[in-house]
Write a structure and sequence with these properties.
about 200 residues, single chain, mainly alpha, Tetracycline Repressor, domain 2
Length: about 200
Amino acid sequence: MADGARERGRQTRTRLLRAATELIPSLGWNAVTTRKIAERAGLPPGLVHYHFRSVAELLAEAALGTAREAVAESLRLLDEAPDLPSGLRAMLHVAYTYGGQDPASVLMTEAYLAATRDQALADRLGAVLEEFRTGLTDRLADGAVAEPAAVSAALSALLDGLIMHRSLLTVPPVDDLAPVLLRITGLSPTEREKQ
């Protein structure tokens, strides 16, 4: 019986997180309320505060979950690639799947903005970013990239910036940027990419 209750609790929590993840991009961080989350999740409003101390905590968990998924996917691409240049190109291609105005991009933009006013959120988002940078640094070091920590910081900012710029401007095609990305790392572009 306790296992059934625990499972229902996990399912409820998942529904609330999913609702928050959907509402943040469509309404904006500050417009998401207990009532709106509960309504979207199809649950009584009291369950929001049963599972989370506050709406702010729920929104933070939703954003952090999205960020962690992106980090895991990026590092997985590097691990599954036959070599580091291929993995970096794969990461760049994934960055291009985000248009800057898609729900995931808007969610993270809202979270970054909210973090400017919420130090606890800033610290937690920073920890996820640091996890990405550390993982990328390790893989760059394994690939014999000089100054892997500095290159990791630059690549991380470049990928975030590309996503944000795509919401406002046309950016060069991914195949034009791949050789530039590889030059930043000190890795050689393929012959096709040099042309």
